[in-house]
Amino acid sequence: MAKPVPEPDQALLDDLVVANRVLYHKNIVDGLGHVSVRHDKDPQMYVLAAERAPGLVRREDLALYDLDSNALTLRERRPYNERFIHGEIYKARPDVHSVVHCHTPALVTFCVCQTPLRPLYHMSGFLGRGVARFEIREVAGMTDMLCSTPQLGAALAKSLADKQIVLMRGHGATMAGQSIKHSVFRALYAALNATMQMDAMRLGEVTYLADEEAMKGMEINDRFIDRSWSLWKHEAMGPS
Amino acid sequence: MAKPVPEPDQALLDDLVVANRVLYHKNIVDGLGHVSVRHDKDPQMYVLAAERAPGLVRREDLALYDLDSNALTLRERRPYNERFIHGEIYKARPDVHSVVHCHTPALVTFCVCQTPLRPLYHMSGFLGRGVARFEIREVAGMTDMLCSTPQLGAALAKSLADKQIVLMRGHGATMAGQSIKHSVFRALYAALNATMQMDAMRLGEVTYLADEEAMKGMEINDRFIDRSWSLWKHEAMGPS
Amino acid sequence: MAKPVPEPDQALLDDLVVANRVLYHKNIVDGLGHVSVRHDKDPQMYVLAAERAPGLVRREDLALYDLDSNALTLRERRPYNERFIHGEIYKARPDVHSVVHCHTPALVTFCVCQTPLRPLYHMSGFLGRGVARFEIREVAGMTDMLCSTPQLGAALAKSLADKQIVLMRGHGATMAGQSIKHSVFRALYAALNATMQMDAMRLGEVTYLADEEAMKGMEINDRFIDRSWSLWKHEAMGPS
Amino acid sequence: MAKPVPEPDQALLDDLVVANRVLYHKNIVDGLGHVSVRHDKDPQMYVLAAERAPGLVRREDLALYDLDSNALTLRERRPYNERFIHGEIYKARPDVHSVVHCHTPALVTFCVCQTPLRPLYHMSGFLGRGVARFEIREVAGMTDMLCSTPQLGAALAKSLADKQIVLMRGHGATMAGQSIKHSVFRALYAALNATMQMDAMRLGEVTYLADEEAMKGMEINDRFIDRSWSLWKHEAMGPS
Fold it and tell me: What are the chain B neighbours of A201 within 8 Å (beta carbons)?
C-alpha cells in the first residue's frame, strides 16, 4: 500500500464511464450492478466505481482496488458490497480484463430455471463455450444472496471456470471479457439471446448454433465490436 | 379540526412529489394510482395529493388528511376516491409510513389468477413475507371495484394484515413500507418480479428464494435503497 | 351541399388534434389509423383528418364530412379510404360522438383468434357490454380487408350493434364513445386489457369481472376521464 | 472501373440515409444490419454505407458498389463484410431496387424454428407470397454464419427466389422491395407480424389471411407507403 499507485490510461477510464452508462441505457443494470476493468499498467489492480448507480457514474467515482478488493483510492467512499466478484475473477482468470455484474430480468429468468441458455445466432456465439451456474446455497447455505465476501467471490470465480458468463441462482449474472467492450457486448447479447430463446422455445423446436458455428461466430464478432460500441456510446453519452 | 395542523417536513414533501413522478416514470401508475406518506410530526395524519395524475403532481397538490381520510388542507380540491386505502392502513399498521396504490399491468395479471407471486431474487425478498389477497366480493358483493369507503379501506387493511403487499382482484395492488423510498421500491420490484415470474414459469421449474434467503435479501436491500433512489429521482426529475 | 357548413367548436377541434397525438404516443395507431368526432352543431356531420399519419395531424388537416362520408371541406386533399367506418357508425348510433379505428398489435392478436376479449379489471369495464366481431369475408368475400366503401362501413356498423368495440378479423379494431375522451380511453384500455389477458391466460385460471362489476366499473371510470386526459395531453403535446 | 461513375439522384441518397435511421429507430437493426438501394442511373450498381452503425450513417458514408460488390467509391473505407447479400440479390432480381438485412429479435425467433411466418393482417400481406428460408449449413457446412463471400450471397439470393423475404437460420432476415420505402416497410411489418403471430399462436387457433386477401392487402398498402414514410422520417430525423 505504501508503494505509489500507477495512474490508469485516461482513455480506459473514459471507456469505463461509458460502459457504466451503456449498461444502464440498455437496461442491463438498474440502480444496482457494476462493471470493472483490470488496470492496464498493473494486472494486480482493477478499476471500479465506488458506491453509485451505474447510470450516474462519472470519472471522479472510479476507484482502484487490489485483487483482494481493498480500496487503494477513494477510501473515504463506501465500496460496492460485491466488489469481490471482480477481484476474485481477475485473480483466477489472467485472460479476463473486464467484468460485468447485473440483475438483468431476461437473465434472472434463466438463473432460476435449469433450462440451458444456448446461442441462437452468431451474435451470441460466445455462449457456445457454455454457461456456468452458481448456487450460493452449496457454498454458504442460507444467505442474502450477495457475493459480499472474498470467499463467496472466489467460489463464484471457481464456478465461472473458463466460461464467459455465469448465471447466479436467485440473483443475476456475471460476464467476463478480454476488454471493457467485450464484457459489455456479452452482457447485451446474453440478455437479448435469453429473451429470444424464451420466445423461440414456445414457438417450436429450436435449432441452436453448432459448437463450431458458435466459436466462429464469436471470433468474427469479437473483431467488429467497435462498430457497435460507437453506437452505444452515442446513445448513452450523446454526440461526441 | 380546530387545532392547528403541523407543517410536515419539507424534504418529506419533496420526496413525496418525487415518488409520484418516479412511479409514473417507471410505469407503475398511469393517469390513476397514488402514493402517500404518514405525517412525520403527527402519526394521526397523512399526506396525499388531491385529485391529479401522479405524473403531474406538484408540491401545491399535496393535502393533509386525518386517518379517517378527511381533508385537513386543500379542502376545496376533490380528494382521491380511494384515499381510504391509505388512512385505514395507517390506522391498522403503526409500522407503515408510506403506501402505494396502483394498477400496474404485471401485477393485475397476478390479481386475477390464483398463482402465488413469489420472490425470484434478492431484490424482491420482501415478497417472502407472503403476498396478501383482497376479494372485494367477499366484503361488499357486486361493486365498482374501488375501495372508496372507510369500510372497504378497513377491509383491505385487514386483508393486508402484516404483509407488505396486497393483490386486489380485478383492480390492482397496494404496497406498504417504512418510508416513501421503501414503498416505491416495493412497487417497482413487485412488478418486475411478476414479469420475470411469468417468463420463468413458462421456461421450466422455478427455484424461488427460501424464506430465510428472502428475509436476508430484504434486510440488505432495505439498507441500500438510497443508491437506487438517486437514480430514480434523476430519471424522473432531471439533474438536481 | 350548398348550405353553409357550420364551424365546429374550436375546443372540440383542439381535442381532436390531441386525440390523434395521444393515440400515436400510446402506440394505438402507427402511420395509419384515425379518430373522428361528430360535429357539435350538426349531428349529420363529422370531423376527421384528411390523409396524414395521426402522429403528425394538425388543426389544418381536419376536414368535415357528411354521414355518407363526402368531404365538405378540404376537398382538394385525399380523404382516408376507410372514412366510411366513421360515417356509417354515426348513422347507426346516435349515442356515439367519437370513433377510433386502429391496428394495435395487442388487439390484432385477438382479432385473428376466437378467444373472447373480456374485462380483467375496472379500467376496462366497458368490455363488459361485450366485444363485437366483424368478418369481412361474410360480407364481401375476398377483399383487401379495408372498409373502403359505404357498404362495408355499414356492415361494420351492423356488427358493432350496441357494443363499444368491434374486432375486425385480419385487420384491427374500432371503438365508439360518447366523446373523444371516451373513445380514446377505450382504445387505450382495450389494448392494455388484451395484453394483460394474454399473460393472465398463460398464468392460470382467470377471474374476469362479473357483468355487474364491469358496468359499475365503466360508470365510475367514465366520470373520471379528465384526470387521465390531462396526463395524456401533457405527454403527447408537452406542457400547456 | 476506368469509366466515370454516374452520380445517383440526391433525393435517393437522402432517402437511404433516412432508411438507415428509421430502421435503427424502429429497432429493426442495432449496431449491425444494413440497407441498400440500386443505382437509379445504372442498374449494375448499388449504394450502401461503408462500415458504420446504421443509426449513425450520414450522406458521406454512402459508397457505390458494382454488382460483384466491389467498391467504386470510398475505397479507403472498410466495406460491410456482408455486402454480397445486396449485390447478389440485385443480380438475380431485376425487379428489386432495395434490400434490407437485419438481426431483428422477433424475426430471429422464426429463423431458428420451422414454424411458418404467415400474414395475420393486411399490413403484412407481402408475406402471402411466402417466406423463403436459408440454411447456410447446406451450402457451406460449419461457418461463422455470415454471407461474406460472393458464393454465399448468391446462395442466399437463390433461396430468396421470387419472394420478398428470406429467414436465415441462426442469423437474421433479408427483405427485398421495389424501392427503399418498400423494403423498409417490409422489414417493419415482418417484425411486427412475427411478434403478433407468437402471441396469437399462444392465444388460440389463428385465422391467417387467405392468399387472395394477402395479395390484395399488399397491393393497397404498397400504394400508401408515403403516409407512413412521412411519420418514420419525422420520428428518426426530427421535423423537416
Answer: 203
